[in-house]
Specification:
The chain is mostly helical. The chain has one domain: Arp2/3 complex 21 kDa subunit ARPC3. Helix content is 76%, strand content 3%. It is built from 8 helices and 2 strands; from the N terminus they run ααββαααααα. A two-stranded antiparallel ribbon has the order 1-2. 34% of the residues are buried.
C-alpha cells in the first residue's frame, strides 16, 4: 500500500508544483517545470516498482506533468508557447544525454566512491534518452496539434471556453498511446522478458490515463487564475 500512496502523493506534488510555478512566475514558470520534469523523468524511468497490481516505471507520473504543462500553455498562452515548451524539453534531454555520457569519460580518483554508481546509473542512459526523446517529440507535437484541433471542433458549439475537459483529455489520452508505444519499444524491447515488457507498456498507459483524468482540474484552475489576473506577465520580471 505504501507504493500506491507514494504514487498518489507524487501526482499531487508534481501537478501542484506546475500550478505553483505558473502562479508565481507565469509562463516562465511552466518552462522551468518542463526542464525539471524532463530531467527527473529521465532518471526515474530507471526505477521499476509494483503498485496497483502492476509493474511500472517511476517516470510515468513526472513525464505526464509535461502534458499538463502544454495543455495549460495551449489554453492560456497559445499554440506557439506550448510548442516552445516541447522544444525546451527536447533541448533538455539532449543536454542531459551529452553531459551524463561526458562524465563517464573521466579517469576516476582512487578515493572516488560515487563514480561506479553514477556509471551504473547512466551507462543505460543513451538508449533510454533516445526512447524518451523520440516519444516526447512525436507525442508532444501531436498533443499540441490535436489539442487545437479539438478546440476548433468545440468552437462550433458556441462559447470557445466550453469543453475544456474534452480537448484536455481527448488530446492527451490519444497522444499518450503514441508515446507509450514508442518509448516502451525502444527502451525496453529485449531488455526485459516479454511478460515484463507488455506489463510495463500496459501499466504505463494506464498510469497516463489516470494522470490525464486527474490533471483536468488543474487545467481548469490554471485558466481561472489567468481569467482573474493572478498570473504574472513577463514584463513584471524585467525590472
Amino acid at each position: 500500500m505504501l507504493n500506491e500512496l507514494l504514487l498518489v502523493g507524487s501526482v499531487v506534488i508534481i501537478f501542484g508544483a506546475v500550478l505553483g510555478a505558473y502562479r508565481l512566475f507565469g509562463k516562465s514558470g511552466l518552462y522551468l517545470m518542463t526542464v525539471v520534469a524532463t530531467i527527473l523523468a529521465n532518471v526515474e524511468v530507471l526505477i521499476l516498482v509494483d503498485a496497483f497490481g502492476m509493474e511500472q516505471t517511476l517516470g510515468n507520473v513526472t513525464f505526464a506533468s509535461t502534458y499538463l504543462i502544454t495543455d495549460i500553455l495551449s489554453e492560456n498562452e497559445g499554440k506557439k508557447s506550448a510548442t516552445n515548451a516541447v522544444w525546451l524539453g527536447v533541448f533538455t534531454s539532449v543536454v542531459m544525454l551529452v553531459f551524463t555520457q561526458y562524465w563517464l569519460l573521466y579517469n576516476r580518483s582512487p578515493n572516488d566512491w560515487a563514480g561506479p554508481h553514477v556509471e551504473q546509473l547512466f551507462s543505460t542512459t543513451p538508449r533510454l534518452l533516445l526512447a524518451s526523446f523520440l516519444g516526447y517529440v512525436v507525442s508532444q507535437r501531436f498533443d499540441v496539434w490535436l489539442y487545437h484541433k479539438w478546440w476548433d471542433f468545440t468552437k462550433k458549439f458556441g462559447d470557445s471556453k466550453r469543453f475544456l475537459w474534452l480537448r484536455n483529455n481527448g488530446s492527451t489520452l490519444v497522444s499518450q498511446i503514441v508515446n507509450t508505444v514508442i518509448f516502451t519499444t525502444i527502451a525496453f524491447a529485449g531488455w526485459y522478458s516479454w511478460g515484463t515488457f507488455f506489463s510495463v507498456m500496459l501499466s504505463s498507459y494506464l498510469i497516463y490515463v489516470a494522470t490525464s483524468l486527474l490533471d483536468t482540474p488543474f487545467v481548469y484552475l490554471a485558466r481561472k487564475m489567468k481569467e482573474h489576473n493572478k498570473i504574472p506577465q513577463e514584463e513584471q520580471f524585467q525590472n
